[in-house]
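TICKET: design request
STATUS: open
ATTACHED STRUCTURE:
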């Protein structure tokens, strides 16, 4: 994938209101960035039936219905947004098939709706969104329901001392340029002594130099605190941001890698779209 290229955007739909909101966001991005939209719907494995032939007929009908629905959705998007749209219907496990489609077409961005969660499962986002962020290096935009995300003009850009902390600016640069967006830089370091504030400030200075070269308006704040994710969420609300861009590093200390708790917490509880970029 070419860094910062959104020539093609992949959006997942399950025909729910939540995914419709994500698809609308993807279509708005395609219109603004002059990109192609690929819609993918995955027909999940049907409950096994005793009659094998009936099972095959039932599955065939599910696929035909899915294609019909996706065809209608694509036609509406072409008319309403004026963007080229491809349709892709797959069969199997939802996350697995979306990842397979992403590998085949190599989009610049994957867009998916997410409910988020609350309560004691505070480290787990919706399973499909979580697996996409975890298993692909393609940037993933998770879109919550209940909002109009047709433009991104206020972007929160947290900066931490992690590998490739500034790479995500290369990814979002077309979005920043397209909407003349302002960037809110939030330098983050822990108050436990694990992070060094001067290192974060140095990263912030590097980013500021790039923003000034690109004539991007910006504000800078540094926070030395314990709960970094909570500070990000609070800043997003304070600045009335319409997009948060995070680096979603994997935790390599576990046998099966997990997206780190910082990224999980932001993804879980953000009330605005979150763009996750894997280093």
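STATUS: resolved
RESOLUTION: sequence designed for all positions
ATTACHED SEQUENCE:
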């Amino acid at each position: 994938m070419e860094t910062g290229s959104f020539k093609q955007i992949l959006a997942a739909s399950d025909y729910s209101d939540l995914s419709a909101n994500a698809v609308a966001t993807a279509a708005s991005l395609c219109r603004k960035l002059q990109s192609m939209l690929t819609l993918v719907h995955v027909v999940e494995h049907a409950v096994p039936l005793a009659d094998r032939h009936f099972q095959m007929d039932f599955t065939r009908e599910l696929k035909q219905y899915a294609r019909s629905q996706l065809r209608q959705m694509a036609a509406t998007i072409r008319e309403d947004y004026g963007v080229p749209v491809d349709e892709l219907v797959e069969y199997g496990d939802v996350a697995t098939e979306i990842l397979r489609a992403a590998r085949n077409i190599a989009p610049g961005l994957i867009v998916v709706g997410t409910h988020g969660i609350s309560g004691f499962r505070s480290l787990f986002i919706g399973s499909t969104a979580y697996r996409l962020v975890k298993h692909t290096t393609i940037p993933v935009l998770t879109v919550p329901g209940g909002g109009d995300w047709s433009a991104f003009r206020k972007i929160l850009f947290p900066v931490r001392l992690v590998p490739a902390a500034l790479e995500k600016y290369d990814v979002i640069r077309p979005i920043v340029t397209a909407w003349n967006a302002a960037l809110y830089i939030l330098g983050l370091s822990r108050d436990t002594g694990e992070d060094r504030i001067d290192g974060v400030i140095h990263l912030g200075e590097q980013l500021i130099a790039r923003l000034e070269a690109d004539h991007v308006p910006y504000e800078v704040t540094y926070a030395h605190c314990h709960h970094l994710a909570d500070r990000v969420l609070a800043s997003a609300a304070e600045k009335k941001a319409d997009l948060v861009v995070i680096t979603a590093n994997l935790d390599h200390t576990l046998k099966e890698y997990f997206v780190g708790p910082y990224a999980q917490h932001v993804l879980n509880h953000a009330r605005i779209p979150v763009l996750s970029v894997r280093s």
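CLOSING REMARK: Confidence is low (pLDDT under 50) at residues 117-125, 252-257. The first helix runs from residue 17 to 33.
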